[in-house]
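just leaving the lab so this will be short. what follows is a protein written twice so to speak, once as letters and once as structure tokens for the fold. can you read through it and tell me how you think this chain folds. thanks a lot i owe you, the record is right below.

___
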Amino acid sequence: MNINIKKLYSIADKKERLIIGLMSGTSMDGLDIALCLCKDSGSKTEVKLLNFITMPYQDDFRADVKSIFSRRDADLEKVCLLNELIGLKHAELILSALTKWNINPANIDVIASHGQTIFHAPKSLHGKKNYPNATLQIGDGDHIAVATGIITIADFRQKHLAAGGEGAPLAVYGDYLVFSKKDEDRIMLNIGGIANFTFLPGDKDATKVFSTDVGPGNTLMDQFVQLHYPGIYYDKNAEKASAGKVNLSLLKELLENNFFEIGFPKTTGPELFNLAYLQRAQVNSNTTNISNEDVLATLCHFSANAIIDAIEKTTASTKLPKIFMSGGGMHNPLLVKLLKNALPKAIFSTTDELEINPDAKEAVLFALLANETLAGSPINFGEREGVPSVCMGKISLPN
């Protein structure tokens, strides 16, 4: 037997595994690295977050990646080169984090790498009837495995696509295993570049569980800030948006998109919600001359409205569930205030209450997905479109 296959078999047979989960989102501020102790699998899964760090990207690296991000005219040579470079960069950052934590890489069982999304193209976005749902994450798993000496599981989203999903969001799998609670309906709300949530019914019936994108989270606000305020990557504490006033004409135009009429689950990305989308809305609403602060205030309301509408549709026939927030948007006080004001009967919390750092949650998710690939079996989510019952990820061996 190949020595690496033998090692993989041994890891899968363990009662508990040390898994590093990685996440690099659309904000591209850095690589989230979560060291997780995963015990058992399936309905018996337990996860403990041992260490977490965000290793920041250098400006030139971030600019390099953004030069091909979400672009239909991306330079194919650059895509090819960055597929390898991102893998090497992520390996370097992992080894640096392990050094900070005084942990020998040989003690890590597996790395679970999300990669860097550079284009997301569900059918609802590309509209080409002869083409399937598609998505592309780069940052080659073989490069990570060879550079770190650690077995790496990567490219999770392709199996989801192959089995009939849209490649996102994948939170449903980890959320159901770890965060479901008997007799308590829950919504796991993640506000990253795109806002998404998982609905977890209190009866723990997997056939009722789903994850869905609902619209923009931080992406439009961040893109606008980066364009108009050089050197600033986001509106810290919503200071600029709070100084503005929502423009109702612009808000109405922003909400005029077929995406919001599509049923759950669904996905989207900056391929739709970008500065061109904002510019068209401003032209159509005759609001091209309003202040930057008013635009940011309106964009914040736009994100909030999309989230609120989706939650209300999900819970229309039941009492409002407990909402656990995670992601960068939970640090936006104006956005959170708008959500709480619109949903006064809901109880808001964060995943801190569930012993998972909210900023680490997505990285932890991929550790859980890798754990299921190694030691679990597909959860039966029923025969619903968009929620395939699969285990995900491609396995890269170090040598």
